[in-house]
Amino acid sequence: MNIALTDASTILDRRRPLQYQRDRRAFDGGGDEALSARKDKDSAAEKATISIINDNTFTRDCLTRCLGDAVSEFEIRAYESIREWQDAAAKTATPIILLCATGRQATETALHQGLDAILQVAADARVIVISDVEDPSGMVAALERGAKGYVPMSLDLDVTIGAVNLVNVGGTFIPASSLLSVRGASSPAAEVKPQRRASALLTERQLTVLENLRKGDPNKVIAHKLNMSECTVKVHVRNMMKKIQARNRTELVCMTSELFQSP
User: Fold this and answer.
1) Which residues lie closer than 8 Å to 250 by C-beta, 6 or more apart?
2) With a threshold of 0.85, does the pTM exceed it?
């Protein structure tokens, strides 16, 4: 009898660690479903945020849906006013903000009051102004007041997405035509449309590099995508800057943006 009892006790003792492990996993993680849900939540929390501020419900919803489909790596949030955004700003870290305005008066208000109000709440916010007013001096004023980009509504969605990607990696965007106007280019060569001049000067390989550059990809990523060395990418970028007479990568992207617009 003693041997039988001892064997039974040994069997129970061997089963206890296994049962304990099951119970512990259930207690710590809530099972596989809870673990999966927690991972999804953490992944969502890591997404960068694009906040759209637009008082027009129709255009706000359209832009929200289009960007949601085009840039899945971002979380899109929409607000009717700056005040509504301010109420939620504490929950948004280092956001990209699309400040939309229609009409000259609304645009001037956005540039002089809206930008200040946003940057007072979030000094590190990257604001892109989207407006139907294409005044070069206003665009430059927006940058001087802290905006990171200015996208006219005459440009297509792809340009807006390119501007978002550029600003996200630390760049600044304004249309090439406005940049040339501000620089006071007056020679016949400078008056040639940038897309016409660029298409004539750049090789097919350089255009492919430029297309990836517009997406905000660093040289290392571009090299991997195009199966070339990082040094070769740098040479292409340097040569393009020389041909287009751009002073840096950001200016190169700005001055050639119209190359990638839909006809």
Assistant:
1) 166, 171, 172, 173
2) no
